[in-house]
C-alpha cells in the first residue's frame, strides 16, 4: 500500500486539530490564539458616552475586606470583569498585568471576579499576576453591567464610560497608553 503526500498531510492536520482538544498544547494554543486576535479596545464617541452617577458600590478587596467604589470618584478607573475558568479571561489578563505595571498608582484598577477567594488566589499565583483582585458581592447594586464576562470599562475622571468592551481586548497597546495619558492629564 502506497501512502501519498496528501494522505500524510491530512493525517498531520487531523492530529494537529485533535491536539487542541486533548493535550496541554491545545490549551496554550487557544490562549495564544485569543491573544493574537485580541485588539486594542475601541473608544466610545463623546456624544455616545454614558456617565456613572452613582459610585455607591460595595466590593471586597484581596483580604476579603469590604470597601466602597466611591473612593475612586474623580479618578481614572479601569474595571475588568473576569473568571478564572474562562479561557478568554486568562488571555486578556496578561495585557492587563502589563497595563497595571505601567500605570499602577496613576489609575484605579478593579479586576473583579465573583468567584471564591481560594481558587482565585491559586489562579493569580499560578500566572504570577500582581494586580489587585476585587471580589464582586452578588446582589449588590452596581454602576455597570456585570452579566458579561469577560468585559471591561474605562472611566474618566468625570465618570464618563470612555471604553466598554465585551469579550477580550489587548490593553497593552500604544493606543491605550496614549488615551490613558490624556485622561490622567485632564
Assess the beta-strand content as a share of residues: 15-25%
How many angstroms does the end-to-end distance come to?
74 Å
Number of strands: 7
Helix content: 25-40%
| DSSP helical segment count | 5
Q: How would you characterize the largest beta sheet?
A: 7 strands, mixed
Radius of gyration: 20 Å
What best-fitting shape do the alpha-carbon axes yield? Answer: elongated
Q: Mean of the pLDDT scores?
A: 86
The poorly predicted ranges are none
Lateral strand order in the biggest sheet: 2-1-5-4-3-6-7
The chain-level structural class is: alpha/beta
Helix-strand topology string: HHEEEHEHEEEH
Which secondary structure elements does this structure contain, and how are they paired or packed?
Layout: H1 5-22, H2 24-36, E1 58-60, E2 66-68, E3 77-81, H3 87-103, E4 108-113, H4 117-126, E5 133-136, E6 151-155, E7 161-166, H5 174-185
Parallel strand pairs: 3-4, 4-5
Antiparallel strand pairs: 1-2, 1-5, 3-6, 6-7
Structural description of this entry:
By secondary structure, this protein is an alpha/beta fold. Helices cover 38% and strands 17% of the residues. It is built from 5 helices and 7 strands. It has helices at 5-22, 24-36, 87-103, 117-126, 174-185, and strands spanning 58-60, 66-68, 77-81, 108-113, 133-136, 151-155, 161-166. The protein has a 7-stranded mixed β-sheet with strand order 2-1-5-4-3-6-7, with no helix packed on it. Helix 4 (117-126) links the parallel strand 4 and strand 5. The longest helix has 18 residues, at 5-22. It is elongated, with a radius of gyration of 20 Å. The N and C termini lie far apart (74 Å). The mean pLDDT is 86.
